[in-house]
Amino acid sequence: MRRVAVVVLEGAKPLDVGIPAQVFTTRASMPYSVDVCGVRPGLIAGGDGLSYHVAHGLEALEEADLVFVPGYRYPDRERPPEALTRALQRAHERGARLAAISTGAFALAETGLLDGRRATTHWHYARSLAERYPQVQVDDRVLFVDEGSVLTSAGAASGIDLCLHILRKEAGVAGANHAARRLVAAPYRSGGQAQYVPQSVPESHGERFTRTREWALRRLGEPLTIERLAGHASVSPRTFSRRFRDETGYTPMQWIMRARVDRARELLEETDLAIEEIAATVGLGTATNLRRYFRRVLGTTPTEYRRTFSES
């Protein structure tokens, strides 16, 4: 079991607190236990009319493997508590991973652990984060940023994407997809996907592209060209390519390739299919192609990946 601590600060946003608590909830299908804590035990006034009563103080961080700092109101008005800053630094020093949702990035930046690294936060607070912590490379265009031992995400919904991303790395694709189904959430949105579309795009196109992505995920083993995807979306290939990248942060073919790699990961975890057969099933054609894309995306080979999960 891996231990997760969710730190609730004054003015904490309800969705930001609830997302990691629910995604990593203690249950038979999940290898995690969750402690919700505060700077000290007791009643904490939250945002949006809600308060929290937590049983644990910062001692919960002493044995946590993963620490979440949810977003809180008015992070640009005052510094986070010094006790929290020290506790986060100590947790990081002994190997815990630290993850911030939305404005929780301010508390993480206060530790100095984001200096020289990329980070994100809710787009509304991105400028304030960059001005207060100029050593942090703030990127307000993305849903989340994974810098290894420190991770940050944008608004509340992207907290789900961050949590599923962590699950995908720690528990495998199948475990992340199981959690996504339980949450009725999209199983995969890349961290590079835009927080919001900078151009004005008619809503009907956004809905149509969502359906096209879902349609493509069910047909990864088939030839999927830009022309075929655009035809399903009922727009021109040029329009589809431009707007798809605005919505996802990837070109259509980059997105398809990553979806195929993720499907291959799931098959490697759950089946004994040969590498060549998996490559054909997910639409990558040959084992050579699968190995090349695996190395490009994950930095490993399909065989090494399968061995890791067979030994876990």
Keywords, separated by commas or semicolons:
globular; Rossmann fold; single chain; 47% helix; 2 domains; two-stranded antiparallel sheet; alpha/beta; Arc Repressor Mutant, subunit A; 13 helices
Question: Describe it for me?
Answer:
The strands form three sheets. Strands 2-1-5-6-10-9 form a six-stranded mixed β-sheet, sandwiched between helices. It has 13 helices and ten strands. The chain is 47% helix and 13% strand. The protein is of the alpha/beta class. The two termini are 13 Å apart. The protein is globular. The protein has two domains: 2-183, Class I glutamine amidotransferase (GATase) domain (Rossmann fold), CATH 3.40.50; 197-312, Homeodomain-like (Arc Repressor Mutant, subunit A, Orthogonal Bundle), CATH 1.10.10.
CATH architecture of the largest domain: 3-Layer(aba) Sandwich
Averaging pLDDT over every residue, what do you get? 87
Total domain modules: 2
Strand order of the largest sheet: 2-1-5-6-10-9
| Net shape | globular
Helix-strand topology string:
EHEEEEHEHEHEEEHHHHHHHHH
- What is the highest CATH level, the class of the largest domain? Alpha Beta
Q: What structural class do helix, strand and pairing data support?
A: alpha/beta
As a percent range, the share of strand residues is 5-15%
Give the CATH topology of the largest domain: Rossmann fold
How many helical stretches? 13
